[in-house]
Specification:
The chain has 369 residues and is α/β, with parallel strands linked by helices. It has helices at residues 8-14, 16-24, 43-48, 58-75, 84-87, 110-121, 136-140, 159-179, 184-205, 209-217, 232-247, 285-299, 333-351, and strands at residues 51-56, 79-83, 98-104, 125-130, 143-146, 223-228, 250-255, 272-276, 303-309, 321-325. It has a five-stranded parallel β-sheet, sandwiched between helices. Helix 2 (16-24) packs parallel to helix 8 (159-179). The longest helix is centred in the middle third of the chain and has 22 residues, at 184-205. It is globular. Bound molecules: fructose -6-phosphate (F6R). Fructose -6-phosphate (F6R) binds at residues 57-60, 104-106, 109, 112, 156-157, 241, 245, 365-366.
């Protein structure tokens, strides 16, 4: 049932193009209107939403962090993202005009469930983004958008994450549509770009041999650091989480802009640093800043592993290892940039002799607080 792969995780990584495409299937009509029919919140209420609050744990939380960039950019509605385990213990400001989005692959995560119950008690509407039909979280929510990743067996989340991103982008576009901040042309174009990213993931998957080789060469290291900016920041966090849980290595993700505020002190000779580079297109100021960061850490001895868009030549002189990802709109880059980090973690875990599908101390769904 592993379909010829050694591990479920490898199979699930390989299934990502299909998972993304399936989650997009039938969401937009010829007129460029999104019809998220499972989303049973009346448009009048969606128009009234004055705040979006995303609650989730672990990898799903990283999807939520990325969603914040899309929601605020596309809809101009303020969006908060919070770890579900922190949410209800701090008396969050909610009410009927807050739309709470609970993101959960399993739909059974206790912290996320308790957060959504708290939100509903405060009169907020809750939308679940979930991969498991009929699970507790979607059952207790006002609305649900199912991701169509298919069953995810490996404990470490891969294809569910990519489909959570797709679902979050769709909800953000839907909010933009209902509130009139996005034209139907724009929505159609964004959905087209989302579909193209499924091909992008396929392309990334076909170029992973050097990443595996690199991972094997790092098997005896203790630490790997990850840097990113904008939507690349949560991607860095996700890369680090994957490495912790699978390779049992000390891995940390940082916002690249924070380097000088502390983390740069960790840089020493030979420490591998994976840097997720934003697109250089449109003269992105963030791109230039991150290129300087790469120079700074390399000058201090870091071994740089650079994840950069095809055609980005500015990074080449400073990359000890270069991982190319296809060109995407800047907000969608996580769909392609996360994939090499999954492969990297999986291969490192294998090289270290770890159980890839069942990492120590972890369970697939965390049904206790
Ligand atoms: C990491 C991982 C976990 C889950 C988290 C939430 O690879 O799988 O961090 O993302 O436990 O689980 P769900 O999405 O089922 O609520």
């Amino acid at each position: 049932e592993k379909g010829g792969y050694d591990y479920f995780m490898l199979k699930e990584i390989a299934e990502q193009p299909k998972a993304v495409a399936d989650t997009l299937l039938g969401r937009v009509d010829d007129a460029g209107r999104l019809s998220l029919d499972e989303l049973r919140i009346p448009p009048e209420e969606v128009r009234e939403v004055d705040k979006v609050v995303i609650v989730a744990c672990g990898t799903a939380f990283h999807a939520g962090m990325i969603a914040k960039y899309a929601v605020e950019h596309w809809t101009r509605v303020p969006c908060e993202v919070e770890l579900a385990s922190e949410f209800r213990y701090r008396d969050p400001i909610l009410g009927p005009r807050a739309l709470v989005i609970a993101v959960s692959q399993s739909g059974e995560t206790m912290d996320t469930l308790m957060a959504l119950r708290h939100a509903r008690e405060q009169g907020s509407k809750v939308l679940a983004i979930c991969n498991t039909n009929g699970a507790t979280i979607p059952r207790e929510s006002d609305a649900v958008l199912y991701t169509h990743a298919g069953p995810e067996v490996a404990v470490a989340s891969t294809k569910a994450f990519l489909t959570q991103l797709v679902a979050c982008y769709l909800v953000a576009l839907y909010l933009g549509q209902v509130r009139g901040t996005r034209s139907s042309d724009d929505i159609r174009e964004q959905v087209r770009e989302l579909s193209r990213s499924a091909d992008g993931v396929e392309r990334v998957l076909s170029t992973m041999e050097p990443v595996r080789e690199l991972a094997r060469s790092l098997a005896s290291h203790d630490t790997v650091l990850f840097l990113g900016r904008h939507v690349g920041y949560p991607v860095a966090l996700e890369g680090a989480l994957k490495l912790k849980e699978l390779a049992y290595m000390h891995a940390e993700g940082f916002a690249a802009g924070e380097l000088k505020h502390g983390p740069i002190a960790l840089i020493e000779e030979g420490v591998p640093v994976v840097v997720v580079v934003p697109s250089p297109r449109g003269g992105s100021v963030l791109h230039d800043k991150i290129v300087s960061n790469i120079q700074e850490i390399r000058a201090r001895g870091a071994r740089t592993v650079v994840v950069a868009e095809e055609g980005d030549e500015a990074v080449v002189p400073y990359a000890d290892h270069l991982i190319r990802v296809p060109v995407t709109p800047p907000l969608l880059q996580p769909l392609v940039a996360t994939v090499p980090l999954q492969v990297f973690a999986c291969e490192l875990a294998t090289a270290r002799g770890n159980e890839v599908d069942q990492p120590r101390n972890l369970a697939k769904s965390v049904t206790v607080e």
